[in-house]
Write a structure and sequence with these properties.
The chain has about 700 residues and is of the alpha+beta class. Helix content is about 30%, strand content about 25%.
Length: about 700
């Protein structure tokens, strides 16, 4: 039931007593909703806890959840029309519904019970609150566990891991993240510190859902991707972890040579396997049209199509992983490094780095994922289109946990990852690429954003909690720190009037992308005109956080500054336009001046913007999503934010309600005790046994 305002006030008055209720005395399941729409679940057992987690996700995201589950079922075109047909074809081609049914059958005992409970909570909410759900979404009900598992696999394997190979188009923006773990030796309080900071698009299956889940022996706070049945980035009283997108290659696109009605493998003709599927497609008048598909498979995997006499198949790691939810439950429940590592060794997540810290002072970087064991070839070979005529390139097993690059408690006192290869996870580097298979990860240059990550903390021997928050929210441009002095010197050497006028603006600029920064827009336009060969000193692996540097052609750089100045004045009417006058945070009814910018400028406060010709503004749609800065002292403490708010359901006051914090470069305290939650209580729901 939902409490009215007088009941809420009565609950607040009883806060001291409620806050003292021990976990083992909890009978009913309470969901205490705080003033930012975050559910704090208090349950008598883990099954009831996950039931409430499913209920809570529906409370804030019902329409989105049902659409995502309908897509994962491969029947979205039947429900909502032609625009979902391509999605349904992909779901059916990779056989996600049937794979999910097989994976569900592998879950037994407590693992199965938790999944069942989550789905019961989803369906129970829909039954109890039909008025809250878009009628077009109700046809997906009831949800089944295979729907949830298929959704999880779709997001992890097809969208995060294999999208480039499936689409054969390099994405303009690849989901990314920042992270730090600081050891006690480098912490002012002598407690380990952790920064979680994924950068994902602000919509669809990329959204995070923030929650606290509590039951006897379990108390975790964090986020999970909406629709998934577990917290995927979280902390408890003893430890915590975060993820970043890693430079893993765990999917491959093969080019097959056609012969007759089949293809060649090891010089012998092979027949394709075929499967027929009938998809229903809803028409504008509500009628259903049947579209018959023939799905094709080679020994490499599903065949995407044919072009110029070749066929293309994709092999994706992790599709068979059945225990993702179980692993993440164990990670969140762990109270020691040993227990947490045991969960990691399940290897149920096919990708993502793990950055970890705990109360005992341990920190970890792990290049996590299902890395295929391959017979030969380096990362560049496997990252391209692979020769499909030889069976030696068809992999069938993965590297073990022990094989993966990892750094535990380095002497540097910190680990970080900002989507760079594992070799630069700490500084000075300790991992040597030559100690791992050449295909494990690229021997790439270290981009400016991970350089910024290292440079912010490497020389700070006593990092306070507040300093770490400041580092996370830092909007400075590493590109400006590296090249602005050279550019200004070049203007002095090769002066022209437009460039000198622009240089005056840049001299006064603070090299940040705060909302009131004047000069950042101009510098970004100049930097956009540069190319990878602009630097006088190229990237040097021996100096990974100070190179590249200098200008190879200073005179050309001055001419480009004049061009950038003309473009800036033409577009905005002035050279010193403020960053926040151009860049905006807009979610729901909120529209605020923005801060932060693209990783290509080496900005740790990472934001990406889409231009709106209608008002000549750039609106954030991608970047800093969830932020958590956590200190693992005798009592854990954390500050958090969820950029776009914790809800999408129409009418919710929490759509975009954290945008003001985002604009102010502020985090909010994570409410970790029942007493603290009661001080910020917005709504209380009590889920009775009858509802379950």
């Amino acid at each position: 039931m939902t409490f009215s305002l007088p009941q809420k006030l009565a609950t607040l008055a009883a806060g001291v007593l409620l806050g003292c209720v021990p976990a083992h005395a909890q009978k009913a399941t309470d969901i205490l909703w705080d003033s930012y729409g975050v559910p704090h679940v208090y349950a008598a057992n883990e099954n009831d806890m996950y039931y409430a987690f499913g209920w809570a996700q529906m409370h804030n995201h019902a329409n989105l959840l049902l659409r995502l589950y309908g897509q994962a079922r491969g029947r979205a075109a039947e429900y909502w029309g032609e625009k979902y047909l391509a999605s349904d074809k992909q779901i059916q081609l990779f056989d996600l519904p049937e794979t999910a049914r097989r994976n569900y059958a592998k879950n037994q005992g407590a693992d199965k019970a938790r999944l069942d409970a989550f789905v019961r909570g989803v369906n129970a909410y829909a039954q109890a609150h039909p008025e809250a759900i878009d009628p077009a979404m109700k046809q997906v009900l009831p949800i089944t566990v295979p729907d949830v598992l298929a959704h999880t696999t779709r997001v992890l394997c097809l969208e995060f891991l294999a999208a480039d190979d499936i689409q054969d188009v390099a994405r303009t923006l690849v989901p990314g993240s920042n992270s730090y773990a600081i050891a006690p030796a480098k912490s002012a309080s002598k407690n380990a510190l952790l920064v979680a900071n994924p950068h994902l698009p602000w919509g669809d299956f990329y959204l995070f859902f923030e929650a606290q889940l509590t039951a006897p022996g379990f108390n975790a706070y964090g986020v999970g991707l909406v629709g998934t049945p577990a917290l995927s980035i979280a902390f408890n009283e003893h430890l915590g972890w975060t993820h970043t997108v890693n430079t893993i290659d765990a999917s491959d696109r093969y080019e097959l040579t056609l012969q007759g009605s089949g293809y060649l493998l090891d010089g012998q003709p092979q027949a394709f396997d075929k499967k027929s599927v009938a998809l229903k497609v809803r028409q504008p008048d509500g009628s259903l049209r049947t579209q018959n598909l023939t799905l094709t498979y080679s020994k490499h995997g599903p065949v995407l199509g044919e072009k110029n006499g070749k066929a293309y198949a994709v092999r994706v790691a992790g599709l068979e992983n059945a225990f993702f939810a179980s692993q993440y439950h164990q990670m969140a429940k762990a109270q020691s490094w040993k227990a947490f590592e045991a969960a990691l060794k399940m290897q149920q997540n096919p990708m993502f780095n793990v950055v970890y810290a705990d109360q005992a002072g341990n920190i970890l970087y792990l290049f996590n994922g299902n890395v295929p064991k391959r017979s030969s070839g380096d990362w560049n070979f496997w990252n391209g289109t692979v020769d499909g005529t030889s069976s030696k390139y068809i992999w069938n097993t993965y590297h073990s946990y022990a094989d993966l690059p990892q750094v535990f408690n380095p002497r540097s006192g910190f680990v970080q990852n900002a989507n760079d290869a594992p070799w630069t996870c700490t500084y000075p580097p300790v991992l040597k690429p030559e100690n791992f298979p050449a295909y494990m990860a690229p021997r790439e240059v270290m981009a400016l954003r991970p350089q910024r990550a290292v440079n912010l903390v490497k020389d700070d021997a006593s990092i306070t909690f507040d300093e770490l928050v400041g580092y996370k929210l830092n909007t400075g441009m590493e590109a400006a720190d590296r090249f602005l002095d050279d550019l200004l010197a070049a203007v002095q050497k090769y002066p022209n009037a437009p460039a000198e006028k622009a240089a005056a603006v840049l001299r006064a600029w603070d090299k940040t992308t705060n909302a009131d920064s004047r000069g950042a827009v101009l510098f970004a336009k100049w930097f956009d005109l540069q190319n990878p060969g602009m630097a006088a000193v190229a990237f040097d692996p021996a100096q990974p956080v100070t190179t590249p540097d200098g200008l190879k052609d200073p005179q050309a750089a001055v001419a480009q500054l004049a061009t950038a100045a003309a473009e800036t004045e033409q577009q905005y009417g002035r050279l010193d336009v403020a960053w926040g006058d151009v860049h905006r945070f807009k979610v729901g009814a909120y529209n605020e001046p923005a801060n932060g910018g693209s990783a290509k400028y080496g900005i740790f406060r990472t934001m990406y913007y889409q231009h709106s010709p209608a008002d000549n503004k750039d609106y954030a749609y991608y970047g800093d999503s969830y932020v958590a800065v956590t200190e693992f002292g005798p009592q854990v403490r954390a500050q958090v934010s969820l950029s776009y708010g914790n809800a999408t359901q129409p009418g919710s006051k929490h759509i975009g309600d954290q945008v003001k914090l985002l604009a102010q470069k502020k985090l909010r305290p994570a409410l970790l005790t029942r007493a603290a939650v009661l001080q910020s209580l917005e709504e209380k729901e009590q889920l009775s046994a009858a509802k379950k």
